[in-house]
Amino acid sequence: MIGVATAVAAVAIAVHLGMSFLYVAPSNTVNKKHGEMISDYLYPEFEQNWKLFAPNPLQQNVAVQARAEVRTPEGGMAVTSWSDLTAQDGEDIRHNPLPSHSQQNQLRRAWEFYAGSHDAKEQPIGLRGQLSEQYVRRMVAHRFGPEHDGGTVERVQVRAATTPVAPPSWSEEKIDLKPVVRVLPWWPVTSGDLPGKQASGDRRSADGQAKESDR
Questions:
Q1: How many CB atoms lie within 10 A of CB 41?
Q2: Residue 22 CA from chain centroid, whole number
Q3: Cis preceding linkage at 44, omega within 30
Q4: Any alpha helices (H) in 96-199, and if so which ranges?
Q5: Nearest Cα residue to 148 out of 48, 64, 57, 69
Q6: Mind giving me the DSSP string for 21-60?
Q7: Distance between CA atoms of 211 and 213, rounded to whole angstroms?
Q8: Per-residue pLDDT tens for 24-51?
Q9: How deeply is 130 buried, as exposed, middle or buried, from its count of CB atoms within 10 A (0-12, 13-18, 19+)?
Q10: Any residues with CB less than 8 A from the CB of 185 and at least 6 apart, and which?
Q11: What is the pLDDT of residues 54-69, one digit of tens each?
């Protein structure tokens, strides 16, 4: 049994490393032919963003925030204040000598994934756009949990404030440092969006309601 388990683990590791390598490798016959399969395997949990050479440094600070609409015990509806999810991750990282990959990158990469796969009207571009929307919605639902501020979470909304990094004092560059705020529509939260839950029927219904509300 130990030998079989070791062999299975070795094959799984080899497949994962192979998929990751083909994703970041320069264009070649293999990743051209199997590009869709490679992307389906890696997105969104295993997305790779490393390069052979040093990447361009970040030139913007992005603060991702969220709020929830909750149903109170009395049956009414209330909207919570905005929670700064980026600041929460920053607090978890600060003074932590070994921060986790999720604390450092999960929220940032999720927002980049969403922003890069939606147009100016927040319409998804292809299947990746729909996947990124579901990914962000579930991440926020996990952060709030099923109960928040004394009520049951019914919907969540996300916004992001993007502020350019000021140039150094010796630079003559002039840029506008005013934040640009991007506010997304309200998204219904279903049991399938919460940890350990699977409700594909509810999810399809909620997605249909969201599309109707956007019209």
A1: 17
A2: 23
A3: yes
A4: 101, 107-115, 126-144
A5: 69
A6: HHHHSPS-HHHHHSHHHHHHHHTTTT-----SSPPPPP-E
A7: 5
A8: 776 777 777 887 888 777 776 666 665 5
A9: middle
A10: 122, 157, 210, 213, 214
A11: 555 667 899 999 999 9
Strand partners of residue 147: 152
Tokens 């604390």 locate to 103
**Which residue do the tokens 């986790």 mark?**
100
Bridge-based pairing of strands 147-148 and 180-183 is unpaired
What tokens does 183 get? 């506010």
Our measurement of the distance from residue 201's CA atom to the centroid of its chain's CA atoms, rounded to an integer in Å, reads 23
Note if the pTM is more than 0.90: no
| 149 vs 176: CA distance, rounded Å | 37
